Amino acid sequence: MEFAGIKSLIFYAFALLTVASAVLVVTVRNIVHAAFSLMITLFGVAGLYVFLQADFLAATQVIVYVGGILVLILFGVMMTSGRLQMRIQIERGQLILGGLVALLILLLLFGVISNTPHWEGIKDDGSTLEPTTRTIGEMIMQGEFLLPFEVVSILLLVALIGAALISRKEVRDEE
Amino acid sequence: MSLEWYLALSALLFTVGVIGVLIRRNAIIIFMCIELMLNAANLAFVAISRELGDPSGQVFVFFVMTVAAAEVAIGLAIIVSVFKHRETVNVDEVDSLKG
Amino acid sequence: MELPLHVLIISSLIKILIVVHVLLIGVMAMILAERKVSGWIQDRHGPNRVGPWGILQPIADGIKFFLKEDLIPDHVDKPIYVLAPAILLVPALIICAVVPFGSSITVAGYEIPLQIADINIGILYVLAITSLGVYGVVLGAWASNNKYSLLGGLRSSAQMISYELTLGLAIIGVLMLSGSLSLREIAIAQGANIWNWNFLIHLPAFLAFTTAAFAETNRLPFDLAEAEQELVAGYHTEYSSMKFAMYFMAEYMNMIVGSAVAVTLFLGGWHLFGLENLGGPFWSGVISIAIFSAKTALFLFVFIWVRWTLPRFRYDQLMNLGWKFLLPVALTSIVVTAIVWIGTQSKLLVGVCNVVAASVVVAIVASTLAMRREPEQIERQEPSFMKGSSSGRT
Known about the structure:
- The complex is a heterotrimer.
- Chain A is mainly α.
- In chain A, about 75% of the residues lie in helices and about 0% in strands.
- Chain A has a domain at about 1-105: Up-down Bundle (Four Helix Bundle (Hemerythrin (Met), subunit A)).
- Chain B has a domain at about 25-85: Helix Hairpins (Orthogonal Bundle).
- Chain B has helices at about 5-25, 25-50, 55-85.
- Chain C folds into 2 domains: about 70-315, no CATH class; about 315-394, no CATH class.
- Chain C has a two-stranded antiparallel sheet with strand order 1-2.
- The longest helix of chain C is centred in the N-terminal third of the chain and has 37 residues, at about 5-40.
- Chains in contact: A-B, A-C.
- At the A-B interface, helix 1, helix 2, helix 3, helix 4 and helix 5 of A face helix 1, helix 2 and helix 3 of B.
């Protein structure tokens, strides 16, 4: 019983961490601070994956998002902004309008969640983590997801070549 | 922890991302906020996959991550090359195609 | 495995305490070893003033770090400046949680596995945590608000991202033959005999992995991030006192942890010709720890040896090596291992085919590069490295 209590406490801590740092991403003025907050958010989400017994995804989340995507974004930040340009103003008109739209979306989402029947609640019986890696691997490599997997690999390859092409051409133009 | 908690959390994260896209004008911050929204969707996927005991949801998340990686590679290449031409990453100032 | 909860908690706490302290002491030992070995390689004495044969030198260094003024320059971004060294140090510490440093030891009737946590995604955990190290460097460099630091940080992060790919891909062949992501099971799958260890079966992948590990730890052939002559000191220029010491410790800790992971993945873990099974249930555990430590120490010696033997790479050479040689070699290793293993189920054949395929790939890449480079060389001075390596590697 005590164990479950600690567990839910840790869940709330992760949830709070995730949302609070996400809010920081949006509100903080300094763009590198925003990237740093995003890192904490991504970590929080990885932690929540562990709670949902998705161990493979938790590791992948850290490898792909924190170790790959966010580093790329930081690179972009450092290439596009000098120290002085890193603080960006928010216009008031956009703030009000954007806030309104977001509030509507939030209400809509909550409405959908509360109006959908048959949520039984996740069976949180303190059972140990069952490995998901093999299941996911088999679904991708042998099961119904083989074709999407191949398509996505080609998409990645195309994106890679495209990105290299876009950034390379600019260099040549300047020379 | 019931599923509603995860879904509510996911909805909250998504909304924060939406706010970010709407009020921030820096292209890279907008990028980060899109990542937030993708993560929110992923969280909902995983939560429901756990609820249904069906790992397909997790496979979808795997694909979303892959597409997100591709998106970031291309997007940042575009942002950097726009910055090289226009010296700005403010999305409101990049409006040459406006009639 | 079925330990009662209180035994599990107590034994885990003890293991964590021991591992963390062994790591910290290991860092001190490495600092001393580095200076002693460098002295030996350069035919001089090395530190010999503090204590007998200079063995107290690391303690003197540590005290010096503590007593120095902890300076935070005015122009830095304070929160991130303070956090960055910790972001580099913490991943180095927490990777050890999944490294099995011995078989198992029986104390008071309980069989305790010599590993803090045997999680079933062990190797993914290692890769994930490794990828965090780059933040310590980038954020520290940016927060210093110094162009040399920023340059060093950008160089280092580009280098770390590039070599992480090789690091990850080189492991996949090993995973295929072991059929598990858990580091303990990978070690067990290699068995006691040296000809079954992965470094022979996956020789090209092992070499790629080792090279990538050097690059990941920013060690000398690849230490462009902190090239003193060009960048003052790279990303830690603005750091002093214990904050600098944290960067310093993180580098050594990464080396130790990297060696331990390499030993587990490629060098058979705690196995050595059945020697680890001698003695009773208690002593066999102790012997397995000793074997593991000895292998790790051997690997660490190679780290130091290489540092004092090879000169620094140039940046384009570094990127060429990573993307045009190591990455194709690692990829080929995956394909060859998969095909040969499924076709023949013979480890010997996998090993032979891996070496042959890797040589062919390196030869193709090197000759392509050499052919493409020749006309350019007249107008621009191009790196002579490519040609040198083409003759050296094929």
